[in-house]
Design brief:
The protein has eleven helices and twelve strands. With 394 residues, it is of the alpha/beta class. The structure holds 1,2-distearoyl-monogalactosyl-diglyceride, NADPH dihydro-nicotinamide-adenine-dinucleotide phosphate (NDP) and Protochlorophyllide (PMR).
Length: 394
C-alpha cells in the first residue's frame, strides 16, 4: 500500500498511510530501524507506590469524592460522571477532545488553560453544555502555576479520573531561544517539564480515585519517531546524552537544547515529543502494576490546521494542509482527532498500559511502534532523574 506521494521521497523508501516506513533498500540513507518494538514488560521501578506512603509525592488535601455509583430517581445505580483534566483545551486537539467528551454526557471536563477567557469562549463556541466543563488556569511555562493548579484542582473537591497532557508550543521560526519562568527553553519547558511536574503531582490524586479505569495520557507525535518518514524530515529529534537538559536548558551555563547543540525550535519541539513518549513509558514501568493506572500516548494524525502552526511561515500554513490531505494522506480533521483522543480517554477497550496508539485509514486504533530512541529504557530513566531535579522533586 505505497503512498501516492511515493514519488516525493527517494525511490528506495515506501510508506503507508501512517507514514510508517515499510520497506527501504538503502539503510544508510535514513538509518532507520523499524524493528524496535515497544517493550511492555515490567521492570522493577525505582520509585514505587511506597513512595506515595513515604510522602515523596505530596499528600492530597482531603476531599470527599462522590461515590462511584449514584442512585437515580428510579433507584437504579449508575456510574458517576468521569472527571478528566485536559491541558491546552482552548484550541485544536484539546478543544475537540473536550467537546467530544462533553457530548458523551458522562464526563466533566476540566479545561486547564493559560488563557481563561479564550477557553471559556472556545467552550461556548463549540456548544459544550455549561455543566459539562470548568475552566481552570494553568500555565505550563511556570512551575509555580503548575503547583497552584494542582492546589486549586484539589480544592474543587472533584476526584481525578483521567489526566490528558495535551498542550504544546511549536516555535519553528525562532532564531533565538525563549524561556519559561524558571529559565528552561520554552518548548521543552512547556511540553515536557511542565507536564512532567503536573503528572507527578497528580499521580497521587489519580491513585485515590475510585473510578474503574483511571488513565494518564500524554500526547506524542510521529515527528518524534525516526522510524517514520515524517520523523526523518530535518531537523530530526535527538536527545543525545541529555547533557543540555542536565545543565538546565537555560542557554547560559548550558545549551538550550537537550542534546547540548545549537538552538533549533523545530528540533526542540520534536525532542519534547520524544520526552513525552519516554515519560509515558517510564510512568508505566514505575506505577502501572501497583496503581492499575493506564498510561498511554498517541499520535492522533496530522491535524494540519490547528494553532500549533501559528508561528510557522505563512507559506507553510497555506501549503501544509493540502500537502497532508492530498499527498501524504496523513491529514485528519480536528473533530476526528478529538474523537480519537476521546477514545483513549474513555473507550473501555483501550485500557492497555504503556501503549502508543495510532489509527489506520479506517480510523481504527492500533498499537504502534516507537522509534529506538523513543523506546530507550535507559534514556527514559535518565530523563526521569534529570527532570525530577529540574522541577524540584528530587
Ligand atoms: C522550515 O520551513 C523552517 O525554515 C525551519 O526553520 C524549520 O522550522 C523547519 O521542519 C521545521 O521548517 C520549512 C517550510 C518552509 O517547508 C514547508 O513549508 C514545506 C511544507 C510542505 C509543503 C510541500 C508542498 C508540496 C506542494 C503541495 C501542493 C499542495 C497541493 C496539493 C494539491 C494536490 C491536488 C491533487 O519552506 C517553504 O515554505 C518552502 C516551500 C516549498 C515547498 C517545497 C516542498 C517540495 C516537497 C519536496 C519533497 C521532497 C521530499 C523529501 C522527502 C524526504 C523525506 C525523508
Ligand atoms: P494548538 O496550538 O491548537 O493547541 C495547543 C494548546 O496548548 C492550546 O490550547 C494552547 O493554549 C496550549 N498551550 C500552549 N502553551 C501553554 C502553556 N504554557 N500553558 C498551558 N497551555 C498552553 O495545537 P494542537 O491542538 O495541534 O496540539 C495539541 C497536541 O497535539 C500537542 O501536544 C501537539 O504536540 C500534538 N500533536 C499535534 C499534531 C498536529 O498535527 N497538529 C500532530 C501530533 C501531535 P492557547 O490556546 O492559549 O494558545
Ligand atoms: Mg511532515 C509521510 C507522511 C508524513 C506525515 C504523516 C507527516 C506528519 N509529515 C509527512 C511527510 C513529510 N513532511 C514530508 C515528506 C515532508 C517534506 C516536504 C514534510 C515536511 C514537514 C514540515 C516542514 N512536515 C512537518 C513540517 C513541520 O513543520 C511540521 C512539524 O514538524 O512540526 C513539528 C510537520 C509535520 N508533519 C507531520 C506532522 C504530524 C507534523 C506536525 C505536527 C507534529 O508532529 O506534532
Amino acid at each position: 500500500m505505497a503512498l501516492q506521494a511515493a514519488s516525493l521521497v527517494p525511490s528506495s523508501v515506501s510508506f503507508h498511510k501512517e507514514g510508517k516506513i515499510i520497506g527501504f533498500k538503502e539503510t544508510s540513507f535514513l538509518g532507520i530501524s523499524v524493528s524496535d518494538h515497544l517493550k511492555a514488560e515490567f521492570h522493577p521501578p525505582s520509585l514505587r507506590i511506597k513512595d506515595f506512603k513515604r510522602g515523596i509525592i505530596k499528600a492530597q488535601t482531603v476531599t470527599a469524592s462522590p461515590s462511584i455509583e449514584q442512585a437515580t430517581s428510579e433507584g437504579k445505580k449508575t456510574l458517576r460522571k468521569g472527571n478528566v483534566v485536559i491541558t491546552g483545551a482552548s484550541s485544536g486537539l484539546g478543544l475537540a477532545t473536550a467537546k467530544a467528551l462533553s457530548l458523551m454526557g458522562n464526563w466533566h471536563v476540566t479545561m486547564a488553560c493559560r488563557d481563561f477567557l479564550k477557553a471559556e469562549r472556545a467552550a461556548k463556541r463549540v456548544g459544550m453544555a455549561k455543566e459539562s466543563y470548568s475552566v481552570m488556569h494553568l500555565d505550563l511555562a511556570s512551575l509555580d502555576s503548575v503547583r497552584q493548579f494542582v492546589d486549586n484542582f484539589r480544592r474543587s473537591g472533584k476526584p481525578l479520573d483521567v489526566l490528558v497532557c495535551n498542550a504544546a508550543v511549536y516555535l519553528p521560526t525562532d532564531k533565538e531561544p525563549t524561556f519559561t519562568a524558571e529559565g528552561f527553553e520554552l518548548s521543552v519547558g512547556t511540553n515536557h517539564l511542565g507536564h512532567f511536574l503536573l503528572a507527578r503531582l497528580l499521580l497521587d490524586d489519580l491513585n485515590q480515585s475510585d473510578y474503574p479505569s483511571k488513565r494518564l495520557i500524554i500526547v506524542g507525535s510521529i515527528t518524534g519517531n525516526s522510524n517514520t518518514v515524517a520523523g526523518n524530515v530535518p531537523p530530526k529529534a535527538n536527545l543525545g546524552d541529555l547533557r543540555g537538559l542536565a545543565g538546565g536548558l537555560n542557554g547560559v551555563n548550558s545549551s538550550s537544547m537537550i542534546d547540548g547543540g545549537e538552538f533549533d525550535g523545530a528540533k526542540a519541539y520534536k525532542d519534547s515529543k520524544v520526552c513525552n513518549m519516554l515519560t509515558m513509558q517510564e510512568l508505566h514501568r514505575r506505577f502501572h502494576e501497583e496503581t492499575g493506572i493506564t498510561f498511554a500516548s498517541l499520535y492522533p494524525g496530522c491535524i494540519a490546521e490547528t494553532g500549533l502552526f501559528r508561528n510557522h511561515v505563512a507559506l507553510f500554513r497555506t501549503l501544509f494542509p493540502p500537502f497532508q490531505k492530498y499527498i501524504t494522506k496523513g491529514y485528519v480533521s480536528e473533530e476526528e482527532a478529538g474523537n480519537r483522543l476521546a477514545q483513549v480517554v474513555s473507550d473501555p477497550s483501550l485500557t492497555k498500559s504503556g501503549v502508543y496508539w495510532s489509527w489506520n485509514k479506517n480510523s481504527k486504533s492500533f498499537e504502534n511502534e516507537l522509534s529506538q530512541e523513543a523506546s530507550d529504557e535507559q534514556k527514559a530513566k535518565k530523563l526521569w532523574d534529570i527532570s525530577e531535579k529540574l522541577v524540584g522533586l528530587a
